[in-house]
Design a protein that fits this description.
The chain is built from 9 helices and 6 strands, in the order ααβαβααββαβαβαα. A 4-stranded parallel beta sheet has the order 3-2-5-6. Strands 1-4 form a two-stranded antiparallel ribbon. Helix 7 links the parallel strand 5 and strand 6. It is globular, with a radius of gyration of 17 Å. It is found in: Cytoplasm. It catalyses: Hydrolyzes single-stranded DNA or mismatched double-stranded DNA and polynucleotides, releasing free uracil. This is Uracil-DNA glycosylase.
């Protein structure tokens, strides 16, 4: 099946694109986009991959669903388009970065700048119907993104996985812990952060320490 995605990812994921479940998923998504307002825009569905080629990936952040409000989702988990107000989870991510690595709170919530440094910002579900959180779950996306995680785990070495919250932590079983580094904490959403499960996790400085130990270039958060 022809899928428009960055070539290095296409090479590693082609076998998924040829499976029956993926063809059924594509038909479902096409129908949803024709009948309803859905996010992100069609050309941004695979943006996380397009901005972060396979062999340049150093860090993986796993989210759950795209934002379902107008003009928010841009295909990268936790990220919003330039000029869009920052959702609560993103606010808490930036607050933690400010205290952890002393970077000023940024004006833009667009995390493409992270992706271009090798941070794969992967939602488990890549599309959503407007104003209906979780509306495209259990249609095949999770099977595909689990295959992405397994492919990274088997084909790469020394990737730092950042697993925030219970949903992301369930992905630990897909990762070879002998080859990769896994950092876990509560989710940056206010519900979790206000219970003391997010702030102070120091994941951003810890990631750079791990990258330095492996001789990789650091991420400018």
């Amino acid at each position: 099946m022809e899928v428009h995605i960055e070539p290095s990812w296409k090479k590693h994921l082609q076998s998924e694109f040829e499976q029956t479940y993926f063809e059924q998923l594509v038909q479902f998504v096409k129908g949803e986009y024709q009948q309803h307002t859905c996010y992100p825009k069609g050309q941004d569905i695979f943006a996380a991959f397009d901005h972060c080629p396979f062999y340049e990936t150093k860090v993986v952040v796993i989210g759950q669903d795209p934002y379902h409000g107008p003009n928010q989702a841009n295909g990268l988990c936790f990220s919003v388009k330039d000029g869009i107000s920052h959702p609560p989870s993103l606010v808490n991510i930036f607050k933690e970065i400010k205290t952890d690595v002393e970077k000023p709170y940024p004006q833009s919530g667009n995390l493409e700048r992270w992706a271009q440094q090798g941070v794969l910002l992967l939602n488990a579900t890549l599309t959503v119907r407007a104003h209906q959180a979780g509306s495209h779950q259990n249609k095949g996306w999770e099977k595909f993104t689990d295959a992405v995680i397994k492919t990274i785990s088997s084909q790469m070495d020394g990737i730092v996985f950042l697993l925030w919250g219970g949903f992301a932590k369930k992905k630990i079983s897909l990762i070879d812990k002998t080859k990769h580094r896994i950092l876990t904490s509560g989710h940056p959403s206010p519900l979790s952060a206000n219970r003391g499960l997010w702030f102070g996790n120091q994941h951003f400085s810890s990631t750079n320490k791990l990258l330095a130990q492996m001789g990789k270039t650091l991420i400018s958060w």
